UniProtKB/TrEMBL annotation:
Localization in the cell: Cell inner membrane
Protein name: TRAP transporter small permease subunit
UniProt organism field: Thermus brevis
Domain Tripartite ATP-independent periplasmic transporters DctQ component: 30-159
Family, as annotated: Belongs to the TRAP transporter small permease family.
Top-level lineage group: Bacteria
Membrane topology designation: Multi-pass membrane protein
Record-annotated membrane-spanning stretches: 21-41, 53-70, 91-116, 136-154
Keyword Acetylation attributed: no
Record keyword Protein transport present: no
One Pfam family named in its UniProt record: DctQ
InterPro entries: DctQ, TRAP_DctQ
Keyword vocabulary terms for this entry: Cell inner membrane, Cell membrane, Membrane, Transmembrane, Transmembrane helix, Transport
Length: 179
């Protein structure tokens, strides 16, 4: 049990740090978007690289923030039903939803995207647009995002499983071990 909880805590800490990075990416994409708009409307200058950098940063925010969002319970659920259920029923829904839907979906996406990503890295894929950015780094970032989401799913599975077994008390995202 302690080993599983230790694994969960390491995964939680990893996604927490990535979440802190994502906060800075939000600031960066905001500044880049504003600078890009100013350059286009004041100086009549535009660049595909600036536009693609915005898209890449938006992608990083969502892809790398998904694990952090799961850790903090921010993903969409049908709260009208979920909120009316007992704590144990909520734990079962979270546990089974992670096991049956989240983790298989992450595994499928990683399995299907792996050949595309490796080919992109191998050929050093570039944007087809003039002055565009390399495409392979954002494809690698996509894999990293789904790995982070899958890892957080495993962490949530561990915590919910231990809570269902009566070995862990879950309170406000911070698990405490039951003595």
């Amino acid at each position: 049990m302690r080993v599983l909880l230790g694994i969960s805590r390491v995964i939680d800490a990893l996604n927490e740090r990535v979440g802190q990075l994502v906060v800075w990416l939000v600031l960066l994409v905001t500044l880049l978007s504003a600078a890009n708009a100013l350059m286009r409307y004041i100086f009549h200058y535009s660049s595909n690289a600036y536009l693609e950098a915005q898209w890449y940063l938006f992608s990083l925010i969502f892809l790398w923030g998904a694990g952090w969002t799961l850790k903090h319970g921010g993903h969409v659920r049908v709260d009208v039903l979920y909120a009316r259920l007992s704590h144990k029923a909520q734990l079962w829904i979270d546990f089974l939803g992670t096991l049956v839907f989240l983790l298989p979906m992450v595994a499928l996406i990683l399995w299907l995207s792996w050949p595309i990503v490796t080919e992109s890295v191998h050929i050093r894929e570039m944007s087809p647009d003039a002055g565009g950015l390399p495409r392979w780094p954002i494809k690698v970032a996509m894999v990293i995002g789904f790995v982070l989401l899958g890892l957080q799913g495993i962490s949530e599975l561990i915590k919910r499983g231990l809570a269902l077994a009566g070995k862990l008390q879950l309170e406000e995202e911070k698990p405490e071990e039951v003595v």
